[in-house]
Each structure stands twice: as C-alpha cells, then as structure tokens.
Amino acid sequence: MRGRHLASGCWLAAAAVCCAAATPAQAAAAAGHAAASASAAHPAARLHTVTIAGMHFLPATLQVRRGERVEWVNDDLVPHTVTARDGRFDSRSIAAGASWTWVADRAGSVAYACAYHPDMTASVTIR
What we know:
This protein is of the alpha+beta class. It has 1 helix and 10 strands.
C-alpha cells in the first residue's frame, strides 16, 4: 500500500515503511523517528528475578512497579510453587531448573508461599 505525500516528505505506515517517493535519507530519518516514538510509548518492562534456593525465596521482599515482570527461578533440587495468599497468582509446579514469570498488574502488597513447603514465604509490593 502506498502512503500519501505530505509537504515535508511522506507519510509512514505503522511498520515504518515509507512510500517510494521519499529519498533514502528521508525514509531513514522517518524510520528512526517512528522507532523512537514506539520505544517511548512502550518502554521495555523491567525484569526482577527471585531465586528459589535452599528452601527460600531470595529476596524475600521485593518492590516493583505496575507492568514490571517478576521471574522466579528454581535453583533448588525439588519443585516449588509461587502461590499468592490472596489468589492473585499461582505458578503451579516449577520444576528444579525451571522458571515462571508474572507481570505485576495492580498496586498492593502480595504475600506468597510455596504450596508444597508452606514455611517458604515472601512478598512483593507493587507501586
């Protein structure tokens, strides 16, 4: 599909593909602007890692922002779960050497534990 021309160059489609009338320099500049706009509008979500080792969640307390990701990595020899006390999330069984990721969806503090080992507890606070 061909874009429509504007006085200053060409119109870009969502995929940053410029119409054939644009010069390579105009197309490159427009593509760079589109990429910068996209990254500003949708910055990559930060990833936080919680290690499961020695029958503990490390760190035991974590603070994140809404939209950020939390990954639990099971470095223990046995399976574990990451189960929120309020039911907000449940990883189900995470095998030794495996991981599970959750996106912090709403503000608040969430206590969680391993369903197999209830003495393993921790919390995540979402701002």
